[in-house]
């Protein structure tokens, strides 16, 4: 973005969109009486940008949509727990930079009435894209062995290393490639990660192992405690290698004797199966598939044959 006219405290010289006093309730603190208890945190943002085109066009697409920013920040903060407000502020900065491509952000987070003799305590930070190396990634999760427990546990494991920004509804879907098994609860999550694709896949395979997934090479599509696939890596088209723990046919072997399988992103299943496309479209209906060129909502509509694709499958209660 080009520089505008407003002088910031950092000397950035950008125009600034202000969002003041977002009020959220979340777990934030280390004290014994704070752990497990939601409390109010107040967040204010300054988003560096260039609003000159929006000033001429009167079109929100030429600016940063502060309503969307507010919703994404509130949704993330209220679905996550924190020990430190420093972590909360940094995560909010990452979201603003990764999702809204702002070149500069200032985040002020404070907790009111938590210490004696003061109105509030908090932290103020400034960040730019140079401070992070984040990718916006979409994962597809499925389970038909104790699915409520295993999906909740899988998301908890994900939150230890990535920012879970959005979660779809959990959809109860019929099995596709092997039909002689229970229905599967499928969902999608949007995450923010600094890991490379191979690192992320290795991490998700570790989650599957932790949740006791049994892989049978002779029954590849059978019931499982948890399955986690990388469906989309933003707008990128890429290949990456991962150790083939199923010991299926692979493209090549590493010098260390591991069988390496090549994986592709976008996952071809996004364009093949409704149980993959529908949860993704619920999260980001306007996201354009990087090879197909259609929005996720259009893909879900085409696969299901219905415009109300979100009603294709029943929704199960997961977080009760």
Q: TL;DR of this structure?
A:
This protein is α+β, with helices and mostly antiparallel strands and 320 residues long.
Instruction: Give the class-level CATH name of the largest domain.
Output: Alpha Beta
Q: How does CATH name the architecture of the largest domain?
A: 2-Layer Sandwich
CATH superfamily (homologous) name of the largest domain = 7,8-Dihydro-6-hydroxymethylpterin-pyrophosphokinase HPPK
Radius of gyration: 22 Å
**Major β-sheet annotation:** 5 strands, mixed
Helix content range: 25-40%
Order of helices and strands: EEHHEHEEEHEEEHEEEEHH
- N-to-C span: 44 Å
Shape: globular
Strand content: 25-35%
Total domain units: 2
What is the CATH topology assignment of the largest domain?
Alpha-Beta Plaits
Helix-strand layout with pairing:
Blueprint: E1 15-28, E2 38-49, H1 52-57, H2 66-78, E3 81-82, H3 85-100, E4 104-112, E5 120-127, E6 135-143, H4 147-159, E7 163-167, E8 171-173, E9 184-193, H5 197-210, E10 227-233, E11 238-243, E12 252-253, E13 259-265, H6 274-283, H7 296-304
Parallel strand pairs: 1-3
Antiparallel strand pairs: 1-2, 2-4, 4-5, 6-9, 6-10, 7-9, 8-9, 11-13, 12-13
């Amino acid at each position: 973005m080009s520089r505008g006219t407003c002088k910031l405290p950092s000397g950035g010289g950008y125009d600034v969109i202000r969002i003041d006093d977002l009020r959220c309730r979340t777990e934030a603190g280390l004290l014994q009486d704070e752990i497990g208890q939601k409390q109010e945190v107040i967040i204010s943002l300054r988003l560096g940008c260039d609003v000159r085109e929006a000033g001429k066009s009167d079109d929100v697409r030429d600016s940063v949509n502060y309503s969307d920013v507010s919703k994404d920040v509130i949704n993330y903060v209220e679905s996550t727990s924190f020990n430190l407000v420093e972590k909360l502020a940094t995560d909010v900065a990452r979201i603003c930079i990764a999702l809204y491509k702002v070149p500069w952000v200032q985040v002020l987070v404070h907790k009111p009435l938590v210490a004696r003799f003061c109105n509030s305590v908090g932290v103020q930070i400034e960040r730019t894209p140079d401070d992070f190396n984040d990718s916006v990634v979409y994962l597809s999760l499925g389970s038909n062995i104790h699915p409520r427990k295993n999906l909740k546990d899988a998301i908890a494991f994900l939150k230890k290393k990535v920012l879970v920004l959005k979660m779809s509804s959990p959809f109860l879907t019929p099995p596709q490639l092997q039909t002689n098994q229970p229905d599967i609860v499928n969902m999608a999550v949007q995450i923010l990660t600094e890991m490379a694709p191979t690192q992320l896949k290795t991490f998700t395979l570790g989650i599957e192992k932790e949740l006791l997934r049994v892989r049978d090479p002779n029954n590849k599509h059978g019931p499982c405690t948890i399955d986690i696939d990388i469906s989309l890596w933003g707008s990128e088209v890429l290949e990456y290698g991962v150790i083939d723990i199923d010991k299926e046919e692979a493209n090549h072997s590493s010098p260390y004797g591991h069988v390496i399988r090549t994986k592709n992103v976008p996952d071809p299943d996004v364009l093949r199966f409704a149980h993959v496309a529908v949860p993704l479209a619920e999260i980001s209906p306007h996201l354009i598939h990087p090879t197909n060129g259609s929005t996720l909502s259009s893909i879900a509509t085409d696969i299901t044959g219905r415009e109300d694709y979100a009603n294709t499958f029943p929704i199960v209660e997961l977080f009760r």
